[in-house]
Design a protein that fits this description.
By secondary structure, the chain is mainly alpha-helical. The protein has one domain. Helices cover 78% and strands 0% of the residues. α1 packs antiparallel against α3 and α4 runs antiparallel to α5. The chain is elongated, with a radius of gyration of 22 Å.
Length: 175
Amino acid sequence: MRAIGKGSLASILAMGLHVTRIILSISLIGIVLMLLIIPFIPSLAVVLSSFGELEVANDGDERLVELGVYLSVAHAFATTAVMLFVVNRLLEILKTLRLGSPFVKENADRFRAVGYALLIGEGAKFAFGFLSLVFRVDIEVNSSFISWLAVIAVFVLAEVFHEGARMKEEQDLTV
């Protein structure tokens, strides 16, 4: 299978990433709407209960449940935002591959940005894990050695692309 051109691996990957970007964008919009609506749910419940449509139980832990839901949705926001950022950078990298010149300085910068985004995403897992302990809410936060290895691998790729771009530039000047 060819690396560039119509029907190539790069084209197939780009198509999959475009679909992923659409799904992530829609998800992010929904998550943002949830983040905006969640703080108003207790007030809406009180208003609806005054019309007799809804009965509100007051057990004293409403704020804790609300905070747990809010932290879970905020965690989903951070994760989805990082994924969308990474997908956009990968699409930009694939574009240069399809054009036939992947070893450009911009791709090294894009890989570095992906590395920082993944690093921020992994750091956010620890932050949300800490918040879940402090506020005693149940948020599933899992970080693994392979995730940290992937972050390191992306930074190594950034350096490889940086060096490749430097070598290509040097070669273009010697011709």
